[in-house]
Specification:
Blueprint: H1 2-5, H2 11-42, H3 45-51, H4 53-58, H5 63-71, H6 76-88, H7 94-103, H8 105-124, H9 127-153, H10 174-208, H11 211-220, H12 234-242, H13 245-258, H14 263-276, H15 278-293, H16 296-324
Helix pairs in contact: 2-6, 2-10, 3-5, 5-6, 5-7, 6-7, 7-9, 8-9, 8-13, 9-14, 9-16, 10-15, 11-12, 12-13, 12-14, 14-16, 15-16
């Protein structure tokens, strides 16, 4: 019992499970902060904002939100770091920060979409098109919903000024650019180190003590509260909760090849696992990053809003698939 409890003190476990991933995360956040600060210091955000200006105008979002939306297609950390910087400077209010963060969830999905699609196709075959299609459709639905809600809730921006504010206070030379980048980076990296390291360490220890596995058992249970899931596909659902997506897709592929279940059963099981694992995924993958970028309380609210809207949209499309396909 004691051996299992303190197994995380083994050097290999600490290095491979905590130190190396934590270093990788800190480097990723640091790089994101640097890119965000460079973009702001050089005022490249003006050009990024132009790309998304029609969508931004429709949602009554400001120039900086448009720039962050475009940046999210390349790096979610850079986009969030940029938004956090603008929020601290008072260029956007908290309400707009929420909308901008929700809007950025779609570019973030498209950032990882190729790897998801080419992972799913070999395992699932034609079912992969349904699964990935529903994920993408839900994301586009969230984008449309965010734009419509923003148009009604946020005050309109001046016509033709989606990018105008990004020209204010432009740096005079390379020296001033360098000074701004270094100053802002050093101020924010301290928060990254002070918040991200303890949060990530706590999540690691909770995972080693089996807390997430126990929570997954509570959420997943014996599958009795999900009557639309074929019992044969219950293993796929549990693997979706307890492991990464590769394991659940591999199990689903084996069942499809064996002819034990139909493609629709696999898609429903994977979608249900995706929905039910959202809280655990947020704790494991988003909490440390968000708390290293935003103030702690704000980070929690952003994660809650983002995941809640995501789950609701996935439930709607999963139900539509169940009843009409």
């Amino acid at each position: 019992m004691h051996t299992e409890l303190f197994s995380f003190m083994d050097f290999d476990v600490l290095w491979n499970g905590l130190c190396r991933p934590l270093l990788r995360l800190i480097l990723s956040i640091s790089l994101g902060l640097a890119i965000g600060n460079i973009i702001e210091a050089l005022h490249w955000g003006r050009f990024l904002a132009k790309v998304s200006s029609p969508l931004v105008r429709m949602a009554h979002l400001q120039d900086v939100s448009g720039a962050a939306f475009t940046m999210a297609f390349f790096s979610s950390i850079s986009a969030n770091s940029y938004l956090a910087e603008q929020y601290e400077q008072g260029k956007i209010v908290r309400k707009e920060l929420y909308f901008s963060n929700l809007l950025n969830s779609t570019p973030v999905l498209f950032l990882h979409l190729p790897s998801l699609f080419f992972l799913a196709v070999p395992f699932l075959g034609k079912a992969a098109f349904w699964y990935v299609g529903i994920i993408v459709s839900a994301a586009l639905f969230r984008t449309i919903g965010t734009v419509i809600a923003g148009r009604f809730i946020l005050p309109p921006t001046p016509e033709g000024c989606v990018t105008c504010e990004l020209d204010d206070n432009a740096p005079k030379d390379a020296k001033e650019v360098f000074q701004r980048v270094v100053s802002r980076f050093m101020r924010r990296i301290r928060r990254v180190l002070l918040v991200t390291i303890p949060v990530y360490t706590i999540v690691f220890m909770l995972n080693r003590f089996g807390v997430f596995e126990a929570l997954n058992d509570v959420i997943g249970g014996d599958n009795g509260f999900l009557p639309f899931i074929n019992p044969e596909a219950a293993g796929v659902l549990i693997l979706s909760l307890a492991a990464e997506i590769t394991a659940s897709m591999a199990a689903a592929g084996a069942l499809l090849t064996d002819g034990s279940i139909q493609a629709k059963d696999v898609v429903l099981a994977l979608l249900a696992g995706n929905i039910l694992s959202s809280p655990m995924r947020a704790l494991r993958h988003q909490l440390a990053t968000y708390m290293g970028i935003f103030p702690s309380r704000l980070a929690l609210w952003l994660i809650f809003c983002n995941q809640s809207v995501r789950v609701v949209s996935l439930i709607l499309f999963t139900l539509a698939y169940y009843f009409w396909v």
